[in-house]
Specification:
By secondary structure, the protein is mainly beta. Helix content is 3%, strand content 39%. The longest helix has 10 residues. It is elongated and about 95 Å long.
Length: 454
Amino acid sequence: MLALLGIMASCNKVDDEETTTTLYGDAAITGFSLGTMNRYVNGVKSTFAGSAYHFNIDQASHLIFNSDSLPVGTDIAHVLCNVTALNNGSIWIQTLEDASIIQAYSAYDSIDFTKDRQFEVYASNGSGYKSYTVRVNVHKQEGEEFTWTRLAHNADMAQMDGLKAVVCNGVKYVFGQMSGQTRLLASEDGNSWTEPASNINTTFAADAWQNVCVKNDTIFMLTNGTLLKCTNGTDWEQVASSSATLTLKRLIGASTAELYAQADDNLLYVSKNGKDWKPETIDDAETLLPTAHIAMVSYPMLLADSTDNVVMAGSRDVAAYPNDTIDMVWRKIADYQKHAPESHWSYMERTDRNRLALPRMESVNLLRYDDTILAFGGKGIGDTKHAAFQIMYQSRDNGITWKQNKKFVIPTTFDSSATHVSATVDDDNNIWLFSAGTGEVWRGRLNRLGWEYQ
């Protein structure tokens, strides 16, 4: 009976303890994200998750923004967003019509972000508040669209029979054949051109324009069997060869640390400094090496230090090999590390399983662009049917296969009657086209490669 009375007394006891709520004096926005977003492109509506785009919260400047802009065409005039505050602070937003008027934020109310919006967050104890600027960035261009711009016509290039363009130290240089010699033009913007005054008392050979390349910040040119170098198109210096018996006939290109050339024997030679040359090692028959319309491109090899991919393409002699329909494409992995095995050239063989070859064409150009190789050229050589300067090919596997890519195309109004076209890429990811015989100058870029990220 005593135990039962104790239990009943316990059940009848009234808990008169009061529940308390803790209030804080801190105020801050700690989270911001977007809900489902609408996008309109060419009148077609689509949706995507706005939460996939991260928003940075700069607590020092009280700025909230997305570094990765939303896709072009995104509707930011009707946006649902999720905002969280520190310690249950209350969130308000200024109206667009009157900055002195604020209204309570709700995750269920649409907000217009076509302009920067001011959010205010109040401490839960009412002691103060902080104001934040929210900026929603949207791309104004379609990222995967390639845009061309035509620049001023150049009368000197229009008189050239052939030309080669390079970029060195931010300046565009065009070496072109005119009146039996090679002339040099220079420009920073592609519109205004000058002819640098050479410090050497000689004219460049008529075919010197074919024998030009850039290694790091230095231009190399082979003229009349003599190798010259300079950094500004004016102050040329002769590079004396250490070999009295080797005669170079074609300077092909350069990688980060090496120069490549052909000698009178049509074999490949390599040099670190332009003075000391040695024959290259090749895996296949020497008869597969190109001897005309040769182009080369070099770029660092991914996931490998001090190593370059070097890709070369060109045509064999038409008289000796009239039935060729494809360019001869070779690749070298140049490893510059100490004690690295000797690098060698490998031929990109064509088989029944690999029919995506690079067509045999004149004036072939190779460019490293958007982590791939682009190639284009003039009319087909021999029996090869190929339209001049109209198709751009892309290789994603270091020169093994080549496909047409609708994204990378020659300008629709480009004059394909040019006698020669040379292309180069500058440090701002612009592709430049220079035309001998027509004087056209074009600059193009994949939109997203020109975007600046905050």
